[in-house]
Amino acid sequence: MSTPPPSVTREVRLVTEPKGLPGPELAVVAQRLPVPGPGQVVVRNRYFLVFPGLRTLIGGAPEGVPLPTIHVGDALFGPAVGEVVAAGPGSPLRPGDVVTHLLGWREHALVTAADCTVVGDVLPDPAAHLSSGAAYGALTRLAGIRPGDTVLVTGAAGGVGSLAGQVARLLGAGRVIGSTRSPGKAERLRTELGYDSVVVSDVRSPSLAGQLGVAAPEGVDVVLDTVGGQQLTAALEVARHGARFALVGALSGQLSPHRDGGSAPAEIDTFRLVTRGISLRGYNGSDHPDAAEEWVGRFGDWLRAGEITFPHVRIPGIERVPEALQELFEGRHFGTVIVELPPH
């Protein structure tokens, strides 16, 4: 039985302009919770996603990003899973329905019912609906993995990358290589997620291109790039003829305290692109609307069969949210970062 919504709830707001990467500039603030109007519902959030794309939105979303900029005084937002606890007149949703929506970063959300998606039992854990389907979409729609391909995943310990290597293997890759900034994470990628080799991109390690040459002496066929910058440059040096690059992220820009999160420059050897017939394509989920539903179905099947895991960490309570975002930017977590709110 659903618990009626309270009259006051809490949300996370940007209270001051960040100097560098956001963190302490966030605060948990009490907010009056309106009664849902026609076609609206109140959702009690159970889980919401902490994701690096917030850096872009807080820094001033550049042209082409289909989400609004977050200004001082605004509440943050992002993917969430929750339970409908009140429904306005004419709403097709009812109390007790479990839905996904984009108004996370608050305990309760007033959402238009049309902006919610009801989740069934296709995934064994509701929190798994916060997994990123970008890797699956990019690998199936852009890269077209062929049996035996050698695949490189940059940023392999992040929310996208920690799934990408597993998905690549399930799609037929013969060898999977990853990159990460942490030797500890490199070990986990090998032992827990089955990466054949992992290169470390911190300043104390040998050159990234040199490490990749050792890890993939015959080159790579597919690159799933979540980072950009120097890692993309290095990946091009080991690309085989006809290699397919699928670009799904720009962490080198979003995790840099010296940028605004809206750019991630990389040096590209266009001569190499031409002579080796390499393709570089950016993946935008809105261009492939069928991929998300397909991902959820296959992800559920793979989870139940024990063929894939969902690497993630759960941060308990909304009070931990500012700290959780800062920890994400500092690279302290492995996999997807989720805030878990109490059920009542």
Total individual domains: 2
Main sheet record: 7 strands, mixed
Number of strands: 15
Mean pLDDT: 94
In CATH terms, the superfamily of the largest domain is: NAD(P)-binding Rossmann-like Domain
Structural class: alpha/beta
Helix content: 25-40%
- CATH A-level architecture of the largest domain: 3-Layer(aba) Sandwich
Supply the number of helical segments.
10
Order of helices and strands, N to C? EEEHEEEEHEHEHEHEHEHHEHEHE
Annotated CATH topology of the largest domain = Rossmann fold
Radius of gyration: 21 Å
Low-confidence stretches: none
Q: Give the overall silhouette.
A: globular
How big a fraction of the residues is strand?
25-35%
Secondary-structure map with pairings?
Layout (H helix, E strand, L loop, with lengths): L7 E7 L11 E7 L7 E11 L2 H8 L19 E8 L10 E4 L6 E5 L4 E2 L15 H10 L6 E4 L7 H10 L4 E6 L2 H11 L3 E4 L7 H8 L4 E6 L3 H9 L1 E9 L3 H4 L15 H7 L2 E4 L6 H17 L6 E5 L4 H9 L6 E5 L4
Parallel strand pairs: 8-9, 8-11, 9-10, 11-12, 12-13, 14-15
Antiparallel strand pairs: 1-2, 3-4, 3-6, 3-15, 4-5, 5-7
Organism: Streptomyces populi
GO molecular function, one term: oxidoreductase activity
Pfam families: ADH_N_2 (PF16884), ADH_zinc_N (PF00107)
Task: Provide a quick synopsis of the model.
The protein has helices at residues 53-60, 134-143, 161-170, 183-193, 208-215, 229-237, 251-254, 270-276, 289-305, 321-329, and strands at residues 8-14, 26-32, 40-50, 80-87, 98-101, 108-112, 117-118, 150-153, 175-180, 197-200, 220-225, 239-247, 279-282, 312-316, 336-340.
